[in-house]
Amino acid sequence: MNELILILSLVVVYGLVLLAYLLFGKSGLYCMSVIATILANVEVIILIKAFGMEQTLGNILFAATFLITDILSECEGKKQANKAVYLGVFSSVFFLLLSQSWLLYKPSGDTTATDALNIIFSNTPRMIIASLLVYAVSQIFDVWLYHKWWNFTTAKFGDKKKFLWLRNNGSTLISQMLNTLLFTVFAFVGTYDFKTLVNIFLSSYVIFVFTSLLDTPVVYLARKIGNKKKYLNKEDSNS
Known about the structure:
This protein has helices at 2-24, 26-43, 59-75, 78-102, 112-121, 124-157, 164-188, 194-238; strands at residues 47-50, 53-56. It is mainly alpha-helical.
């Protein structure tokens, strides 16, 4: 069941990212980036076994944030891609402060909700702080590297549109390795033994390789959507 749920989650999350761009443009991607970042910070505390590997949840949602910045880089520009990163960081800070404030309240009577919140969010600060630092570093690096690949292929082959698959995968795969390594160290050292840490790193990166390769067709579709939107906007401005 874990494997099936993960596959369905990937299809649904990537599909919703594309739908958000189709319906709401870059604003939809900003919203998806915020939602994915917050939910991933909660999911990441859950350790599961799937495809024969121990792994944390949140990998698909974190992969979606890289997909979002790649779409924004390709279709809207570097400035808009970095804006999505800053929104993700801001929303994570807000969520961290708010979720920790819930634990300060004295509950009225017997309530299982308070106990559940304490269990979940008492472990969240380290995860979110680690995620914040790693997310900011890896995402800004990803946007920078995406455009470096883009400038390289444009200068080398004289075509700005070609080699989307190279800049998409070339930036994401390297950035995801950095993201996975830093997050595993900052979030889990001292919590799990070395063998489990290695398993978390390897399984997370294997999943990121898989999700990164699968997001390439989504970026191509998003570029078609972006070009269509630009054409329609140009037609509206000329009418």
